[in-house]
Design goal:
alpha+beta
Length: 507
């Protein structure tokens, strides 16, 4: 059955390629592609695979995913630890949620991005999907557990059926690092803390200059209101404005007018506003403009004034820009929204600019928890998500320019034998060092060559070596060697642990 299906797939694939080469109409090509996908799905259901027919198995990761080598993982672990340290500095605790959720939990929360959700096959009665972000599962968690107040961080993988670009850090499977504050508090205090956290994290990971753009959903809705946009079109026009970071105004306007049916004069009025950016002076200017005639815009502007004032107090105003083009397309935002972008001066080893887009984003979503609560009890929430994969793409590019080798192990001591038949003595010493909490290794060969053991220390960056031979054992001592300087000192066997600890503190 599989061989027959594979032949059909081959024929259908040839037909699709032929139509593309002949520049057939899009409808024709789409129709044949649909048939090809159906055949491939059928092959999957039949349990067939590309190499069952005798073909060679091609070893590769799935589209939009990747492996990480030890040097890359060493950098990732270091960055994750730094981020967790900053989250804990602000009093956050962590939770975990399942990697898949009921499909109905996720649908209707992401606007036009809902098409990027990975659906799973029916596994016996439950329609499931892989999580798209960590925010909606967090809201479900709060509603399900009747949580009214929590400051939580969550670092985990999410999944999006997006068009991937490995070099830009846009993947289909990737980590998000989220920090959220749930609870009813005074205006802009939690919101300003989220901005501060973004600044501290981006400053700590050495990815160059950045700017944190801030805006407010109520200001955007007020702009749409005074520009004559029907209320029913607010969200769809908002998703068009969200594309301004990637597309010029003319293209965005064309989408608003031709695809979404907005009046051209309304689009032109929107264009005048969304190209403004600044700081407190812009807020004051808008409070004295016709926009302040909108009740919701005025409330949003008052919030923004307070946020920018608090950002000054938190010493992060120098990286913050009030940007009216910032929209963030997700449907659940209700108040302040943020987005951090790099300023474009990061370059790879060839001197090419690395464009990774947004490296952090978030905002206030006061109604999301209420969507899951049977009594519609809402819990105000605000949070931010660090686009860690995009930061890693910059850091990896910096790594290729740096000649210094990245240490992938944390071994502090290597136990070396200078003669044969001393493996048991090595094992006694290593056991003592492990019991004392000292990170230690030795060779897995019974009689390794001295030179090979020392070479391992140099290659792995191990700072100290304990060297033993028959004469050292007889005298009740060991030699402690500094690998970098090659200096050796004799240490009494019973003083080995305390001496090693002292030496490690000075390195």
């Amino acid at each position: 059955m599989s061989a027959e299906l594979q032949e059909k797939i081959k024929v259908q694939g040839d037909l699709v390629r032929k139509l593309k080469a002949e520049k057939a109409t899009k409808d024709q090509i789409d129709e044949e592609v649909k048939k090809l996908k159906a055949l491939k799905l059928e092959l999957g259901d039949d349990g067939g695979s590309a190499n069952q027919g005798g073909g060679k198995l091609i070893l590769k990761t799935a589209k939009g995913t990747r492996d990480y080598n030890p040097a890359q993982m060493a950098i990732r672990e270091k960055v994750f630890n730094k981020i967790i340290e900053i989250f804990k500095l602000h009093g956050a605790e962590t939770i975990e949620t399942p990697v898949f959720e009921l499909k109905e939990v996720l649908t209707g929360k992401y606007g036009e991005d809902s098409k990027l959700i990975y659906d799973l096959k029916d596994q016996g009665g439950e329609i499931l999907a892989l999580r798209y972000d960590l925010t909606v599962p967090f809201a479900r968690y709060c509603a399900m557990n009747k949580i009214q107040n929590i400051k939580r961080y969550h670092i985990a993988k999410v999944y999006r059926r997006d068009n991937p670009s490995i070099a830009r850090g846009r993947l289909r499977e990737f980590y998000q690092c989220d920090f959220d504050i749930a609870g009813a508090y005074d205006p802009m205090l939690p919101d300003a803390e989220c901005v501060k956290i973004v600044k501290d994290i981006l400053s700590s990971v050495n990815v160059g200059k950045f700017v944190i753009k801030v805006n407010h959903r109520m200001i955007l809705d007020g702009i749409f209101e005074v520009c004559g946009v029907p209320t029913s079109m607010f969200r769809t026009i908002c998703s068009a404005v969200d594309k301004l970071d990637k597309s010029p105004w003319d293209e965005v306007k064309k989408e608003m007018v031709e695809e979404k049916g907005l009046q051209e004069d309304a689009a032109d009025r929107i264009g005048e506003y969304v190209r403004m950016s600044g700081g407190l002076e812009l807020v004051d200017k808008l409070l004295g403009s016709p926009l302040a005639g909108s009740k919701i815009a005025k409330q949003g502007l008052e919030d923004m004034k307070l946020l920018l004032k608090y950002c000054e107090l938190y010493n992060c105003a120098d990286t913050v820009s009030f940007d009216l083009s910032l929209a963030r397309g997700l449907d659940y935002y209700t108040g302040v929204i943020y987005e951090a972008v790099l300023c474009g001066d990061a370059k790879d080893a060839n001197g090419e600019l690395i464009t990774v887009g947004s490296v952090a984003g978030g905002g206030r979503y006061d109604g999301l928890v209420g969507m899951f609560d049977p009594k519609n009890r809402s819990v105000p929430c605000v949070g931010v998500s660090i686009g860690i994969e995009r930061l890693f793409s910059i850091m990896e590019a910096n790594l290729t320019k740096d000649s210094n080798k990245v240490r992938t192990v944390e071994t502090q001591v290597y136990v070396i034998t200078a003669q044969k038949n001393l493996v048991e003595e090595r094992m006694k010493i290593i056991s003592e060092l492990w019991s004392a909490g000292i990170k230690t290794e030795h060779s897995y060969k019974r009689n390794p060559k001295m030179l090979n053991q020392l070479q391992f220390c140099e290659d792995a960056g191990v700072p100290l070596a304990v060297v033993i031979g028959e004469s050292e054992i007889a005298a009740g001592i060991v030699k402690l060697r500094n690998i970098a300087t090659r200096e050796e000192v004799e240490v009494k066997r019973e003083e080995l642990i305390s001496t090693v600890k002292e030496k490690l503190q000075t390195l």
